[in-house]
Structures are given as structure tokens and as C-alpha cells.
Amino acid sequence: MKEEKFLTLHPQGKKGVNILKRRYDLIRAYILKVIKKEKEITFQDLCDKAEHDLAKTFDGKVIWYVVSVKLDLEARKIIERIPKTSPHKLKMVD
């Protein structure tokens, strides 16, 4: 049986990527859980946490999926980059 795919969005209107829905859902839930808990987090810290927490069980390149799903969540106005932060930080959209 073919697995369900999900087409991500990109905040700058670029073409998104097709990824397996189960992977999208897992990474999406992880990103939202971490940002809600931390309130604000740098993108690097988010990647480091995801790699640490998911690398042993996730069947794909963790960072690639984090990047793709993060961009999708930004495009959907669920999370946002905090302006003028370096390195850039993320938070939930109010």
C-alpha cells in the first residue's frame, strides 16, 4: 500500500516538498511541543534537540525534515521567526 504524502508550503511562496505524512506529523508535533515548552528557541537549538531526541527512532534525515516542516509551519502562520534575532529564533504565532 502506498503511504500518504503531504505537500509542504514555503513562506516565500517557493515550491514546497512532498514528504510522507507520517514523518510530517511526527516532526510537526515535535517542533510545536518544543516551541510551546521553550517559548522561544534558536533554530540551531531546535535542530540539536531534534537530532538528540529523534535520531535513533526516526527513519529519515532528522535535520532535513525539521527544516522542511519548520518552513511549512512558518508559511501556515503557526510559528514565526523573531525579527532581528541572530542566530534566528522561533516562537509560536500569537
CATH C-level: Mainly Alpha
Q: What percentage of the residues does DSSP assign to strands (E)?
A: 15-25%
**Numbering strands along the chain, what is their spatial order in the largest sheet?**
3-5-4
Number of domains: 1
Sheet with the most strands, sense and barrel status: 3 strands, antiparallel
Q: How many beta-strand elements?
A: 5
CATH fold field value: Arc Repressor Mutant, subunit A
The helix/strand class is alpha+beta
Shape assignment: globular
Helix-residue proportion:
40-55%
Instruction: Label the CATH architecture.
Output: Orthogonal Bundle
Radius of gyration of CA atoms, rounded to a whole number: 13 Å
Rounded average pLDDT: 96
Question: Topology as H/E string?
Answer: EEHEHHEE
Low-confidence stretches: none
